[in-house]
UniProtKB/TrEMBL annotation:
UniProt-recorded name of the protein: C1q domain-containing protein
Residue ranges of every copy of the C1q domain listed in the record: 74-214
PANTHER family tied to this protein: CEREBELLIN 13-RELATED, CEREBELLIN-RELATED
Signal sequence, start to end: 1-17
Keywords (A to Z) from UniProt: Coiled coil, Secreted, Signal
Keyword Metal-binding: no
Localization per Swiss-Prot or TrEMBL: Secreted
Principal location class: secreted
């Protein structure tokens, strides 16, 4: 009986030794795996951030396309605006030491709300071909000093010019048909150190509308 008890105790001691060895091996194994797992996770997170950025860009593009499609599927997109320079009163606008968008404040119509009277800028919400026209009345001083241009995405397209002679009360207009992508902008710009005059007869106007989508 005593012999059996001794053998059992030896067996238990051997088993405990094996468990301790296995625990040590496992600890080494886990430390290595943890380092590898952190590296893999860091890479995965970076990939997810890239993917999220790409998805956000695609969602933005899809929203823009949806806005365009909604406008089209209602029938002919209703985009047309017309505005004059002064909402009230009379007087010169300018001169400014830098070229400045003219803010046509007296809004006669703004179907589609593509024209912003706070900035003077028209932003196309639909891809298509548009017509724009603007008029200019020169300053009332003896020497004319008025230059105004129609600009697409900041680039001059057509211009009105009256800067010499002794006449005043001159008016002029210019126009252009422009293909626009969604987000393209069109505005009328008073050139630096130039002046225009207006009153409630509304000589200076900015008008535009969509001719057709394409
Ligand atoms: Ca003139």
């Amino acid at each position: 009986m005593q012999t059996v008890a001794v053998l059992v105790l030896i067996g238990c001691a051997l088993s405990r030794s094996q468990v301790v060895q296995n625990e040590a091996k496992c600890s080494q194994c886990c430390d290595g795996s943890t380092s590898m797992t952190v590296g893999v996770l860091t890479e995965k997170v970076a990939q997810l951030v890239d993917r999220t950025t790409q998805l956000e860009s695609r969602i933005q593009n899809t929203e823009n396309e949806l806005l365009e499609l909604k406008s089209i599927t209602r029938g002919t997109p209703k985009i047309a605006f017309s505005a004059a320079l002064l909402d009230s009163g009379s007087g010169d606008t300018g001169p400014f030491n830098v070229a400045t968008p003219l803010k046509y404040k007296k809004v006669f119509a703004n179907f589609g709300s593509n024209y912003n009277s706070g900035t003077g800028i028209f932003t196309a919400s639909v891809k298509g071909v548009y017509f724009f026209r603007f008029t200019m009345f020169n300053n009332l001083q003896q020497t004319p000093n008025s230059v105004v241009s129609l600009r697409k995405n900041g680039v001059s397209i057509v211009t009105l010019w009256d800067v010499s002679g002794s006449d005043s009360n001159d008016t002029g207009s210019n126009a252009a048909v422009l293909p626009l992508e969604v987000g393209d902008t069109v505005h009328v710009e008073l050139q630096e150190n130039r002046i225009v005059y207006d009153d409630q007869a509304h000589y200076n106007t900015f008008t535009g509308f969509l001719l057709f989508t394409n």
